[in-house]
Fold this protein.
Amino acid sequence: ITEPQFVEKKHCNIGTIGHVDHGKTTLTAAITKVLAKDGLAQYVSYDEIDRAPEEKARGITINAAHIGYSTKLRHYAHTDCPGHADFIRNMISGASQMDAAVLVVAANDGPMPQTREHLLLAKQVGIQYIIVFINKADLVDGELLELVEIEMRELLSDFGYDGNTVPMICGSAMKALNGDETEFGAPSIRKLLSTMDEYVPPIVRDLSSPFLMPIDNAFTVPGRGTVVVGTIKRGIMKKNAEADLLGFGQNIKTTISDVQIFKNSVPEALAGDNVGVLLRGMKMKSVQTGMLLTAAKSCFLTNHYKAKIYFLTRNEGGRRKPIFSRYSQQMFSGTWNIAVRIDLEPTQQMMMPGDHGEVYLTLLEDMVMTVGQPFTVRENNVTVATGIITETLS
Ligand code: GDP
Ligand code: MG
């Protein structure tokens, strides 16, 4: 067995999640304050974070602040959303795909409904790494802190995380923001930051899995054949390798005749590389944007998926009326779209605009979609729902 090969990425997407008023925004401001002392961040005040401008992400409006800072080891892009609904939308739309989340829980409250809801969503959208910051430690005694820690470990285990090993840091974002250097002040923030550096492994490109590349474009080179263009998502693509071109109900066997990076032929290309690939014997009319080029026999096509979905409210441009099973519309993902039928959980009669939950998707044709892949649903070119694939069903 060979060790998987990985390429490092210097960057990590992180975010604060947790119940309203537990201190997410104060913590975000405190992080920049503590790092600003070392010249690793620009201090961003509480008000600046909370007044984050609205952004349009995949057809829906989300209020979110994106703050950049560095530790000695890494660069972070940190997302903090002002309202509970913004967190839900941000996570379900995959607008800022978090590699890890800092779950903030106030020691005087313990876990609350939104703590549970954010944790559930984090699991469903595939966030692997959670770090718990038990905030407002200045308000309670040591015994209560221990109790909250126990409760949080149980909750994490309930939602499929390893409750025993998730790091927990006790502190006070407010004290840290006020420049306090005692245990629960700035030192607790430094502890959080070093935990982020250590616990969340470098975000890696997967070079050991069979290669996979979504097709962005295709063209014909006279005398040579069909060239497909895209960015390799995972694996290593080698010249002369056998491959499948998959999507829209098609599974076409082919061979990689040539791989080019910046118009130069190379023996192989890696995850993250943007390439042009000459496919042996491929007809231009067989290729469609949105198909995948994969290592032979490594992926399978299906038209059944489970997804997490959010229906936009009327104010957000969404539907006025409820959604029932057998709801059929056009689904958009990446550069392609296809007709889809949406069925609710059998126990659920309907969903209302503004609701989120799990649904079953049946696509008109077989596609390859991966867990975590975001999509939208549109009615007459208007976005009415946004979602993320949570499971592939056969
Ligand atoms: P968010 O809704 O999770 O973003 O919470 P905020 O950061 O807006 O904080 C909510 C309230 O809790 C504010 O009044 C903060 O000043 C207060 N707060 C935040 N952190 C602490 C803390 O460590 N100790 C105390 N006592 N209050 C805090
Ligand atoms: Mg906030």
About this structure: Residues 142-158 form the longest helix (17 residues). The CA atoms of residues 342 and 361 lie 5 Å apart. The mean pLDDT is 91.
